[in-house]
Design goal:
By secondary structure, the chain is α+β, with helices and mostly antiparallel strands. It has helices at residues 6-9, 14-22, 28-31, 49-62, 166-172, 195-200, 232-245, 342-347; strands spanning 45-47, 76-77, 91-97, 102-108, 112-118, 120-127, 130-134, 139-142, 148-152, 158-164, 179-181, 229-230, 254-257, 273-279, 287-288, 292-298, 301-305, 308-312, 317-320, 326-330, 334-340, 353-354. The protein is built from eight helices and 22 strands. The chain has a single domain, classed as Sandwich (Jelly Rolls), CATH 2.60.120. The protein is globular, with a radius of gyration of 23 Å. The strands form five sheets. Strands 1-19-16-21-14-13 form a six-stranded antiparallel sheet. Helices cover 18% and strands 30% of the residues. Bound molecules: fe (ii) ion (2 copies). The site of one fe (ii) ion has 6 residues, from loops. Keywords: Dioxygenase, Oxidoreductase. GO terms for molecular function: dioxygenase activity. Residues 94-163, 281-335 form the Cupin type-2 domain. This is Gentisate 1,2-dioxygenase.
Length: 358
């Protein structure tokens, strides 16, 4: 007897369809192929700094921060690769604040950080009562629910990379009620510069390390990330120490993860991890289900993603989408900031990474 075609097996009477429709039900086999397609897949793509600069200069000429509509009230050019961001988990944007301008104080449930592109000692991001100077390549955290505003008291426009988990919080979790304005444009500065480093830097107060407060192996991800400024001078010196004394990681070169200062361990945020990587030679190919977004701090080269070559130079931003085989080919020495959503995959036991078999 000939085998029946699957379509014949699945045929249902119009009465059955009517019953399902009346009760807002669907058979699984009718919808399973559409699952996983609600969000657009990101492409391997690069945003060149010269193009970003043309865009941020143009919107700075046209739009003062004070005239922005209600919302985040930030003057930002956002690379778009999925619905509203560069990826489905990580958002990046280049923000500018002109001399004398203030980006007003607000707070939100999304985790954020600033990576300074063109900074100044008198460009301050104010987080949780402390003014943090934004010098070139400094990374400054803005953890969940901490008030933050940006104040430019220098005579030069400042620019930096904003990195947030907005697509995850707003588009995937649909967590809309997680934003609040401060009653003042600028939050009161209640702490001296260096306060947060004194709480979470190389020394910890003895009374903070008693009994249940001692970070344990399962406590890391629940320990809130404090406001913190990672000064680039320290990071780049440690990267060069590694290149002088250690073997490189085959896929990322000499790399250092930014740690949560509260635990001394990565990830920096529960949803995103960050590392600085120094590369001096071509890396080996690999692939993984996390997304990697890169910002070029110094140097030139190419990242090969599938059969696409992303040619990069200083201050370019590019994305390696999930599951794409990739490797880096620096032209001499190059330094990158890598941003990933790996903590989300690890939290759900979903993280996977492999090297190609041939
Ligand atoms: Fe913000
Ligand atoms: Fe990778």
């Amino acid at each position: 007897m000939a085998q029946q075609e699957p379509e014949e097996l699945l045929e249902m009477s119009s009465d059955t369809w009517d019953i399902l429709e009346e009760h807002n039900l669907q058979p699984l086999w009718e919808i399973e192929d559409d699952m996983g397609n609600a969000l657009e897949d990101p492409e391997a793509e690069i945003w060149k700094w010269e193009d970003m600069q043309e865009a941020i200069d143009a919107i700075e000429r046209d739009v003062p921060i004070s005239e922005l509509p209600p919302g985040f009230q930030r003057r930002v050019a956002v690379p778009i690769n999925t619905a509203h961001a560069i990826s489905n988990s990580i958002y990046v944007g280049v923000q500018t604040v002109s001399p004398g301008e203030t980006a007003p104080s607000h707070r939100h449930g999304a985790n954020a950080l600033r990576f300074t592109i063109d900074g100044h000692e008198d460009m301050k991001t104010v987080v949780a009562g402390e003014e943090f100077p934004m010098k070139d390549n400094d990374l400054i955290t803005t953890p969940q629910w901490e008030w933050h505003d940006h104040v430019n008291e220098s005579d030069e426009t400042a620019a930096w990379l904003d990195v947030l988990d907005l697509p995850l919080v707003l588009d995937s979790l649909n967590a809309k009620n997680t934003f609040e304005y401060h009653e003042l444009e600028r939050q009161p500065v209640t702490k001296s510069q260096g306060y947060w480093a004194s709480q979470y830097g190389r020394g910890r107060a003895q009374e903070d390390l008693q009994g249940d407060d001692i970070p344990g192996p399962f406590d890391g991800i629940r320990e809130p990330t404090p406001p913190y400024r990672f000064q680039w001078d320290n990071m780049v010196e440690s990267l060069h120490q590694r290149s002088d004394n250690n073997d490189p990681n085959p896929h990322d070169g000499y790399s250092l993860a930014y740690v949560n200062p509260a635990t001394g361990e990565p990830p920096l945020f529960p949803t995103m991890s960050f590392r600085a990587q120094l590369m001096q030679e071509e890396t080996d190919p690999h692939f993984h289900n996390m997304t990697e977004v890169f910002f070029v701090i110094e140097g030139e080269g190419a990242t090969h993603v599938g059969d696409k070559a992303l040619e990069w130079g200083k201050w370019d931003t590019f994305i390696v989408p999930p599951d794409e085989i990739h490797h880096h080919e620096p032209d001499g020495e190059a330094t990158l900031l890598a941003m990933t959503d790996r903590p989300v995959y690890e939290a759900f036991n979903l993280y996977a990474e492999a090297t190609p078999s041939s």
